[in-house]
Amino acid sequence: SIVQNNFFFFASSLNHLIGTYNKPYIAIINGITMGGGVSTLKGKLGIYRGLTGHKLKVDVLFDGIATHFVPSEKLADLKRDLLTLREIDIKSVLTVLNKHQPKFSLASLMSQIENCFSAQTVEEIIERLKKDNSDWANVLFKMSPSSLKITKRTIDEGKEKSLADCLNIEFRLVCTALTKDGVRVLLIDKDRKPLWKPTSLPDVTNEYLNKRFAVLPVKKALQLCTRKL
């Protein structure tokens, strides 16, 4: 829809501005936060996060998405400490930020993640998960077949692309591939009975994917500011 596309147009533009901003700043992320960048995560964490939808929580630090971690209940203390610093320098700021060091929740599962999610296709990933008797196989089985393949291709290709290129691709997908049924199932009817189209992984062909990744006409394409701010 026009509203949907406009929302993601401005969201993508803002993400690009933040990603290329020259001035140092501290962004405090608290609560439900949407974002990208999974193609840059170490090993196969990006594929794992993207396909399973596993929530990050404290792992934003270990995944490399965030630089530091502070528990939500300590955010007021963090703000107070930052605002009362006598000297505003990097060392002083880092001293405040480094007070809290959580544990990585997936530490014991990394070898399994690397083995299963290193497969070349979604179908192969699911087969490896089944052989491993992993609950993740059931998780992926419930997901939209097209979303799984689109997500994997986006992450695979994103590793070699710039932020601007990745945002452009993601915006194209919003315009061509974002499904309404997932929204209906989770937020509107909440019946947990999606009617995916295509209905199975084999039906999500390369031809189908290529259409979703096709370049948009100039008038509909994402236009990003290239001027440094």
Automatic annotation (TrEMBL):
Q: What is its EC number?
A: 3.1.2.4
User: What does the record give as the reaction this protein catalyses?
Assistant: 3-hydroxy-2-methylpropanoyl-CoA + H2O = 3-hydroxy-2-methylpropanoate + CoA + H(+)
Q: GO biological process: what's one of them? A: L-valine catabolic process
Encoding gene per record? Hibch_2
Q: Which UniProt keywords apply?
A: Hydrolase
Q: Which GO terms describe its molecular function?
A: 3-hydroxyisobutyryl-CoA hydrolase activity
Q: Which PANTHER family match?
A: 3-HYDROXYISOBUTYRYL-COA HYDROLASE, MITOCHONDRIAL, 3-HYDROXYISOBUTYRYL-COA HYDROLASE-RELATED
User: What function does the entry list?
Assistant: Hydrolyzes 3-hydroxyisobutyryl-CoA (HIBYL-CoA), a saline catabolite. Has high activity toward isobutyryl-CoA. Could be an isobutyryl-CoA dehydrogenase that functions in valine catabolism. Also hydrolyzes 3-hydroxypropanoyl-CoA.
Residues of the signal sequence? none
Similarity comment: Belongs to the enoyl-CoA hydratase/isomerase family.
Pfam families named among the record's database cross-references: ECH_2
Q: Where is the Enoyl-CoA hydratase/isomerase domain?
A: 39-213
Among InterPro entries, the record links this protein to:
ClpP/crotonase-like_dom_sf (IPR029045), ECH_dom (IPR045004), HIBYL-CoA-H (IPR032259)
The identity of this protein, by name, is 3-hydroxyisobutyryl-CoA hydrolase, mitochondrial
